[in-house]
Specification:
Strand content: over 45%
Order of helices and strands: HEEEHEEEEEHEEEEEEE
Radius of gyration: 18 Å
Largest sheet: 15 strands, antiparallel
Shape: globular
Structural class: mainly beta
Helix content: under 10%
């Protein structure tokens, strides 16, 4: 998993799996017109420096003539980050009104590389089929497909679905395993609940949050590797407020800077 993919995936990752492959779920978390902004920071010689921004928007749309939600995520590094790592990513995803994934696209300029990932979803015979495509930096193409008996997600569409999860009854140590698709395959990840904390965003507000850690299976080490800890509001909106990320070249953090068009005011904001 490359550096920016870690940030995007962790920003959009919080879910529980289901025995139904299509996994229809009632949307309780957002409405059309929501816009979330984040500031990105990097620890350079023990000093936290702002190195970029990210924004996520969700609107009502259509996909192949049927109603859908369309989400767009844009990440941009500034000149300070460009010294270490160029970051210019644009992602788009569609889900049904019941939050089942339909399509995902990611165009990523990361370092000296530019790649495009796409995933198409279909649900034959109660299963989930994913057709995957990757355009590599050398303009060559890879294509594959896979059919699973369980829900499959991607790094963007998981966000729109996962925010309607129900964490009631979770205790510290509660762990969830789930599959995630990108342009060249399906991987396995773990989400672990680690309790609650009050966390302040870059918007000057403090929120009561659920604290979770994210790990991904490493074939090379034959075990799960933890990549980050992140914090999501403990209310019906389930907005990520802060993300702590461990990178190969240092540590990074993301803090929410604004929330516009959020479905319900956060009842867990503290002064």
């Amino acid at each position: 998993m490359n550096r920016i993919r870690i940030f995007i995936f962790l920003l959009t990752m919080l879910t529980a799996t289901s025995t139904s492959a299509q996994c229809p779920l009632t949307n309780t978390a957002f409405t059309s017109g929501e816009f979330l902004s984040y500031n990105l920071y990097f620890n350079w010689k023990f000093v936290w420096v702002k190195v970029g921004t990210a924004s996520l928007s969700t609107v009502s749309s259509n996909y192949k003539g049927k109603p859908a939600f369309r989400s767009s995520l844009i990440t941009r590094g500034n000149g300070k980050l460009d010294k270490f790592f160029v970051m210019r990513d644009t992602l788009m995803g569609y889900v049904t009104p019941t939050l089942s994934p339909l399509y995902f696209r990611k165009g990523a300029e990361e370092g000296s590389r530019y790649t495009v990932d796409e995933v198409w979803y279909s649900y034959p015979n109660g299963k989930c089929k994913v057709n995957m495509h990757r355009q590599k930096n050398d303009k060559s193409h890879e294509r594959s497909e896979k059919t699973l008996d369980q829900c499959v997600y991607d790094m963007l569409n998981i966000f729109t679905r996962a925010r309607s999860f129900n964490s009631a009854g979770w205790k510290k140590g509660h762990t969830i395993k789930f599959p995630v698709a990108d342009g060249n395959g399906v991987t396995t990840a773990l989400l672990k609940y680690e309790g609650k904390e009050n966390v302040q965003g870059d918007n000057g507000k403090k929120y009561s949050c659920l604290r979770l850690s994210y790990s991904e299976w490493s074939e090379r080490k034959n075990k799960y590797r933890q990549y980050a800890t992140f914090f999501v509001t403990d209310d019906s909106n389930h907005v990520p407020v802060r993300i702590d990320i461990t990178l190969n070249f240092g540590n990074a953090k993301a803090f929410v800077s604004s929330m516009k068009g959020v479905k319900t005011p956060s009842s867990t904001t503290t002064k």
